[in-house]
Amino acid sequence: MFLQLRAEVEDTLADALTTLDLPAEDLGIEEPPEDVDAVLASSVAFRLAGEVGTAPPNVAGDIADAIAANDLTYVSDVTTQGPYVNFLPSEAYFAETLQSVTENEFGRLPDRDTSVVVEHTSANPTGPVHVGRARNPIIGDAVARVLDYAGYDVDRHYYVNDAGRQIAVFTWAYETFDEDDLPEPERESPEYEMVRYYRKGNTVLEEGDPEEVEEAETEVQSILQGLEDGDEETYDRVSEVVDTVLGGMQSTLGRLPAEFDEFVKETKFMRNGDTDDLVDRLKALDCAVYEEDAWQLDLPDFEKNLVFLRSDGTSLYTTRDLAHHEWKFDTYDRAVTVLGEDHKLQADQLSAALELLDNDTGQLRQVFYSWVNLPEGGMSTREGTGIDLDDLLDEAVNRAREEVESRLDDRTRGDLDEDDIDRIARQVGIGAVRYDIVSKQPTKGITFEWDRALDFEAQSAPYVQYVHARCCGILGDVETDIPDEPDLEPLCEPEERDLLRELARFPAVIEAAADDLTPHTVATYTRDLAETFNAFYRECPVLDADPETRAARLALVDGTRTAIANALDALGVEAPTSM
After folding, report:
1. First to last CA, the chain
2. Residue among 498, 520, 496, 494 at smallest CA distance from 509
3. Residues 85-104: what's their mean pLDDT?
4. Does the predicted TM-score (pTM) go above 0.90?
5. Which DSSP helix (H) or strand (E) runs through 119?
6. How far apart are CA 323 and CA 354, in angstroms?
7. Per-residue pLDDT tens digits for 127-151
8. What is residue 372's three-state secondary structure?
9. Residue 560 CA from chain centroid, whole number
């Protein structure tokens, strides 16, 4: 109902300003402080005071007088507080909120008939997913989920670098070395088995004798040229390596979970002629220059030129990515890319080149993120390999299991078998990692800390998940169904109304998170909702209340369960039914 109330306030305020012959372009609508008994407020009097020639409180009073609150549905009264015009909620607002929160799809917005492709992760398929890059699939998947909740038709893409030097080195190494010459894999998984060849190949190229290195470099260059020429045999050789590693990486990413609708390979745009066509168009640009044995774009706003073709006729990653983006623009209404902060210059140059090629870059938005660090001594590190995401997730599940088992009382323990405890440990452990990472603003560097992430009492995933489990427990103790049309009248306590207000905000939170590509705001909402529910639960007995009040409060519990489950789902975090 928050969205409906906001729309009503916007229309009403605009009409009032028009009546007063005042400009209505900027309405200054915002959410008031917690101590103000209003759902929305307007600071428009600040902006208009100079034009009117009187103090902001006087302007606010004139605006409030021009609004007939009795004619409104979701607003009961319009008041002023200093320069602010406050809009108070009506009983209809609360009643319709109570009705809507019990629907399973609560929080989802209507279809927008707009397609969006979200490209994220896109880590080079050269080995296991590393912890430092874990923020990309977590943020990327959450962005895609929030857009889906907001009504967009979303496809999730992984852009596969299968044409660069690293992959050529990998392919050469895989075809050159025997497994007997390699160390044991760190895990029995394809990417861990394959990465041994890659590491061996790089060691030889860095430390081998000159003749061996020269021979290897010749083969690496032959692979690159074969891909550029569209040679099917070369493509098949590279694909065997790339697809094997990707298969293992998908298993790791699936644990988060982060799933993809399509793995789009660079070579797609080499083999279909798009890259060659793009190179011809780039060469025809006024800013195209041939310098230092390469074709480049001399972009006026950048100190560094954008190289798009080497002297040997091979294209670069950015060249193929330009063709990739033009394909996305042709296929989807909007495109979102999640990138590490170290790719910002490359992304800016890519956008500039796309504009020069007459593309509408308004279709493209980018989300940049900083790195995830682990505290010193936070986990053991295998020498020379760093910490893989699998290590972090294993550790999270193990720690969560210890915490969950320590909190089980005799009654609860009797209701759960080992499979239940394993499930809860996985939901809590992986949920804690994902929630802790997605809940921070992407551009801020973070250090992952176990004590904070797995704290059941603090503002963490387990804290929110526990509220969901508590709601499920309350509802599980009820033998009668919740009414299809719950009665608002018994809900008079301030904690009940506060919970209704918080529940009503959920669709608007989804809308704003999708508009701004900020899934961390959904995480903030889940914490606010959990705190508000706990205050309600402390002050308002549910099962021991009189029948009418009990039914209404059960509807509130059910609505909280639904909102938390859907909000966590929008973040990619599971909502356990017991903990």
Report:
1. 31
2. 520
3. 95
4. yes
5. strand 115-119
6. 9
7. 999 887 889 999 999 999 999 999 9
8. strand
9. 22
